[in-house]
Amino acid sequence: MSIFYHQSTGTFHLTNGEISYLMKVLPNGALGQLYFGQAIRDRESFDHLLELRSRPMTAVVFPEDRCFSLEHCKQEYPAYGSTDFRHPAVELRQPNGSRITDFVYHSHSITPGKPALPGLPATYCESDAEAETLTICLRDALLDVYLFLSYTLFAGQPAIARSARLENRGGEALHLTAAMSLSLDLPDSGYEFIHFSGAWSRERHMKVRRLEQGIQSVESTRGHSSHNHNPFIMLRRPGADEERGEVMGFSLIYSGNFLAQAEVDNWDTTRVTIGINPFGFDWKLAPGETFQTPEAVAVYSSAGMGAMSRTFHRLYRTRLARGYWRDRPRPILLNNWEATYFDFTEDKLVSIAEAARKDGVELFVLDDGWFGARTNENAGLGDWTANPDRLPGGITRLAERVEQLGMKFGLWFEPEMVNRDSDLYRAHPDWIIQTPGRRTSLGRNQYVLDFSRREVVDHIYGMMAKILSEAKVSYIKWDMNRSITEAFSASLPPDRQGEMLHRYILGVYDLYERLNTAFPHVLFESCASGGGRFDPGLLYYAPQGWASDDSDAVERLKIQYGTSFCYPISSIGAHVSAVPNHQLGRVTPLATRGNVACFGAFGYELDLNRLTEAEREEVRRQIAFVKAYRQVLQFGDFYRLLSPFAGGFTAWMAVSPDKKTALVGWYKTLNEVNGPYHRIRLQGLDPALRYTVDGGAEHYGDELMQVGLVTSDAAAGEMTADRYTCDFDSRIFVLQA
Ligand code: DGJ
To answer: Which has the closest alpha carbon to 95: 286, 289, 276, 279?
Structure first.
């Protein structure tokens, strides 16, 4: 792994045998982008890649050079308005109203390892040999503002982590209105733009469109990364698929308002930017102050989307997620939400936990409704003490009773919220996010606490830490059930109101960090009305997240398939729930519900007491299966085989690192009558190993990958005397070398 600097040409070359990333100091001192892609040999000069030519109607930087215009240069961290008219990476409003800046190369440093980003989640390394970081310092001389662009290259991984930091060493206050984490100019526009969008209960559906001249973007303006769009996009060459072709993925390690954009200019070059959404963002940079952007990660793959995903999975699972639970198989949990909603007593909960324990569940999670006056959605949020009418012995006794059953105990919180009907709101009505003189909108009958204020975060920390210190709580589900409206902070002066939503997220990160530090063995699962904040930022604090409130197995195929493009399988909270399904009334086989959920952080979301003995037997089989294979299911290499967005069949598989065990999930939506024969071509196996399929037939890996696994045989779903096939049928094939 090397980061080269060629002084004679001002060229930086970051390369690790997997990828190359090339930049060059341009004639005006700005930083130009030359190449991002598969690794190439180093040389002193790549100047020929600049490709400058004189064009009509072009503004030029120097009168004597008609070829040099920033509009026609591929740049690294561009600004608007000084011969470049595209959307900028950085914009600073100055006291005289100007937004023109001129950041030119000042110095650089190359250091082993990777520095942390204070207050922000970011990838990290465990030894200096794992990564190398290039920091390029640029300076705007008129303003005396320094811009530090940071690039970390990870050994053996086709991934680069980027962020930017601005330091105002001048004498005047400035306003930062755009500070993207990554900006990358690509020489052409021959890509498809792929993003993962949706809404509550149908998060991260894959959307594909061809790049065209103009701007295509996804964003959040809701104060959280949102169900609607995810801070992750891909650029894919037409024809590229899971196994072949060029793909780039861009992911933002951030949980607030983001923008991910591809701007294609009229000469068909593409500018990719990702970072905090400039919409509504206005950060005052007073003299002596600095601003650090969140981190973005770019991954390059010449072997299709599958390889790109596996790079993200490895990096985010092992070098973004942290702590005790990072590498540990996740406990099989049962959450009482869909089993009881708000209707429970201590004894009812214990009876649900008892049944769960009998069948092999390891962790019982008490969801919403245990605190304050919370017997429905309208009261209690903010009062994080147990409701004595419902839990006379408090959380302490309930947790003890659950532990006595031989299980761990987990608890739900929604730390950022408050109901009007709560002691917290009555004591501190001024702690909510509200704009003076304006109506304050409600969402799920609750307000959002102003987490940009330290005293608010301190108070919530105090209440949560008390419970965690007193009771045996091993897991926390951290929920967040509404978007932020009327954003305004009573603690900020008028010229800093544009900082509020970013400061809010910093407050969320601060609370997570404090809880992680004080209670290092607690497993955190993030949640926001399902997948409303399923992003890499939270993976740093909570190694798993509740992927969606939609627990229907068929809908989950799309949600989990879409989520898998960027996020590791161990991070995808997935549960078996009751039928008819509570979100859409569909009835699917219990086996299929289990077969979908087991490719994730597996659990149940129902009262097992309500199942028949035959169903309980099936649950016991599922739990035994997950316990036997969860290391491979959650931490193995994941391959997508058939897309639920493309037809009536979905398939995916997980393979152990030694390639000796593989689990293939195969799912049929609607049944076929007199249908065609089916085979799935597997991936990731060792071609030379001979695998048994479900302990029976034997096939070499090459046959299974080239010819395929026959799924239209009797065992795999055709109607036979001992196995009927139906809508929503599924199988898991266990391959053992
Ligand atoms: C929304 C979550 O996504 C659900 O799982 C559940 O925890 C409810 N909130 C509780 O209010």
So the answer is: 286
Q: Ligand 1 atom closest to Cα of 477?
A: 7
Q: Nearest Cα to 558, choosing from 252, 202, 92, 36?
A: 202
Determine the distance separating the centroid of ligand 1 and the alpha carbon of 549, expressed in angstroms.
7
* Pairing status of strand 131-140 against strand 145-154: antiparallel
Pairing of β 475-478 and β 408-413 = parallel
Mutate to test the pocket of ligand 1, among 341, 419, 549, 583 (most ligand atoms within 8 A of CB): 549
* Amino acid letter for position 77: Y
> What's the gap in Å between 479 CA and the centre of ligand 1?
7
Q: Which residues are catalytic?
A: 479, 549
Q: Is the CB of 411 under 6 A from ligand 1?
A: no
520: preceding bond cis by omega (within 30 degrees): no
Best CA proximity match to 712, nearest among 682, 674, 665: 674
The closest alpha carbon to 319, from 529, 116, 460, belongs to 116
Residue 356 and residue 407 in contact, taking contact as beta carbons nearer than 8 Å: yes
Q: Dump pLDDT digits (tens) for 362-375.
A: 999 999 999 999 99
Query: Residues in the chain with pLDDT < 70?
Result: 1, 713-724
3-class SS string, 541-580: CCCEEECCCCCCHHHHHHHHHHHCCCCCHHHEEEEEECCC
Taking the model in full, what pTM does it have? 0.98
CB 86 within 8 A of CB 263: yes
Q: How many residues does the chain have?
A: 737
Q: CA-CA distance, 259 to 277, in Å (whole number)? A: 5
- Compute CA distances 375 → 73, 387, 629, whole Å: 61, 9, 39
Residue of 203, 334, 335, 337 best suited for mutating to test ligand 1, as the one with most atoms within 8 Å of CB? 337
